Amino acid sequence: MDLLVLHPRRASARRLAKALDCQAATVYPEVQPDLLVRFGHREGPEGRVLTINPREALGKLPRPALARLFRLHRLPYGAGNAGTREVIVHIVDARVVGLRTKDPFTIAEKQKALGTAIRALYLIGLDFGVVKVKVPSHGNPRVAWVRTAPVLSSLLAKGYAREINALIGRFLTTPAPPARADLNIADDNDILLGADPEFMLKSTKGRLVPAYTFFSQKGMVGCDQLRAIGELRPAPRTSPQALTESIRNLLIRASNRIRRKSIRIVAGSWPFKRFPIGGHIHFGRLPLTFQLIRALDNYLLIPLFLVENKATSLKRRRHYGCLGDVRPKGPGRFEYRAPGSWLVSPEITLATLSLAKVVAKNAPYLRRNLFAVPEATQAFYQGNKAFFRPLLPELQKELATMPGYKEIAASMIPLWQMIERGDEWDEKTDLRQTWLIG
Fold first, then answer.
1. Which of 91, 158, 402, 423 would be a feasible disulfide site paired with 418, CB 3.0-4.6 Å?
2. Phi, psi values for residue 272, rounded to 5°
3. In 337-378, which ranges are E strands?
4. CB 206 within 8 Å of CB 215
């Protein structure tokens, strides 16, 4: 198949074309190319088979349109304060291929900045680009600008070419999924599942009991940097059932540490004012791609959205837990941060982790994107469950055909039944009651 880099007279585009071993052009050719890379160029039809950086996404780049898009998704955007640290991140299909900064960052700050840059391109619908991120000492990173015709050295162009070729290869060679959903998806290099679901402590009078009262910041049961929120940090497992059992054991450990029945352990989205909490899911042995993020947003987050407490989840998403919320953690490792704390019951915990694994394992086949229409995105941030409930059966039907689904089908029944009844998860009951411990 022929590949063309279309660009507005950029030397960097010619370097990229050389690295890709293909032609470059500043005017759309008479013959439509099979594969088209738009290097900041919006003119002409798309590629016959695939377009990398489609025209529709490039149309969202003018500053007013970008400001509206990022405001909808609660992604900070703009120049920010003078003197703020900054980092320039080059990304192809959610892979960081280059990074430039003069400023020092902690590991956590760097991960937050990279997650912000990846999310910016994902929300726009781009396949590659460069993002400048401003990183304050306190608060969330801010996108300063996004560019789709980056300045590339010969070395950086080779990095872009490597990942663009990989993206094309994944698109062209992804086979149809096996016909049987009862095929076991485990193998010697099976993906790892981890999690650090958060919880909080509440007195009988409804007051906050800071987690640091009983737990240190480090350890498998600990508290976060604010020291008010508790976290469970089980070791990664390949089995959702084993991970759920590890979480149960850590809850028992937490209960034994607290002892007082007058203090409840609660989860969900927003136990206290100014304290949103989440159910972060970690993946290992699994390279991050935009298609993987899209699959998690559609096939995992939407079912969880339908059983969340609407009032508290709306408050939480003013701060974090929005679409595309990921953080890279190293090669083949990342954290998906969009869900609330599904720790509310063992049934929801097992269903969440089981579904997370099947979706992640089968992401190349799960191509549906309900958020392709603006109405769906608006409904999500408005907590409009009625918009998504009629769309769920198609997602369920598709999931049921995926390899590995039969293994988790029984675990999914409580979640599907809650959605069918229109129930929301209970954020007030002590986790010791729902998990039958202590």
1. 423
2. -140, 155
3. none
4. no
How far from 162 is each of 5, 157, 232, 368, CA to CA, in Å? 15, 9, 38, 27
The string of pLDDT tens digits covering residues 145-195 is 999 999 999 999 999 999 999 999 999 987 776 665 555 555 546 999 999
Coil, strand, or helix at residue 19?
A: helix
- Average pLDDT rounded to a whole number, residues 290-295: 98
Q: pTM for the whole thing?
A: 0.96
Among 109, 101, 185, 95, CA closest to 140 = 109
CB atoms within 10 A of CB 157: 21
CATH among 3.30.590.20, 2.40.160.20, 3.40.50.10210, 2.115.10.20 for 192-434: 3.30.590.20
φ, ψ of residue 174 to 5 degrees: the values are: -60, 115
Tokens coding 149: 């015709």
Confidence of residue 37 (pLDDT cuts 50, 70, 90): very high
Extents of the domains making up the chain: 3-55, 63-147, 192-434
**Angstrom distance (rounded) from CA 90 to CA 160:** 9
Query: Beta-strand (E) ranges in 261-309?
Result: 263-266, 281-284
As given in the structure block, the two tokens for residue 234 are 């089980």
